[in-house]
Amino acid sequence: MQQTWIENSNIVGRDFPTDEFETLNYAAQIDQALTRTLKDRVGLISYLGRINYDFKAKYMLSASFRADGSSYFGLGHKWGYFPSVSAGWLVNKEEFLKNANDLSNLKLRVSYGATGNNRIPSFSFVDLLNPANYPFGAGTGNLVLGLSPNAPVLANPLITWERTFEFNSGIDLGFFANRLTLTLEYYNSITDRLLYNQATM
Q1: pLDDT tens digits, residue range 1-49?
Q2: Are 113 and 166 in contact (CB under 8 A)?
Q3: Cα distance between residue 104 and residue 91, in whole Å
Q4: Is pLDDT of 198 > 80?
Q5: What CA–CA distance (Å, rounded) separates 80 from 166?
Q6: Model pTM score
Q7: Which of 81, 55, 87, 57 is nearest to 69 (CA)?
Q8: CA of 149: how far to CAs of 99, 132, 135, 188, 198, in Å?
Q9: How confident is the model over 78-93, as pLDDT tens digits?
Q10: Where are the domains of the chain?
């Protein structure tokens, strides 16, 4: 379990009489639309269980299940579930290869599982009010400070954990007391519910 507190302040001053002045009290104008203070608290809680099985030091099986809850997502979408399973077979320890003296290792392995990603800005599931200037009055009007939902990305109340499912298989070979080794790999990964920041036009 972890929790992070964030405090961030941003003030923009304009029209300084000279570049030598570096403090905001010399600015002729404070841009209210870009002046903001952020306080945020981010939480993550995880549960992980794993089972390992080894039979005769030849057959290996491992299975795990992970559940993650993140405050980045709204109610009903905070949790992501990520299972995985893997198996291995040390073929060189079988009786039919006991006379293969030059073969020191022959292992077949396969795995399949899911991982998650929650790296998005806070409160992406709801439209937030941000500072905005409104013109009122005749002619060019007067700028009046206000609030509007003017975030660069539209809120998505259904946003949740990104998932990547990956399949991996491989063969490990060793010869002459593992002086010569060879590994062959095949893997394939598919990501769904991608968390991608698509900018507005």
Answers
A1: 999 998 988 888 888 888 888 788 888 888 876 777 888 899 999 999 9
A2: yes
A3: 10
A4: no
A5: 16
A6: 0.76
A7: 81
A8: 74, 9, 17, 41, 17
A9: 999 999 999 999 999 9
A10: 44-192
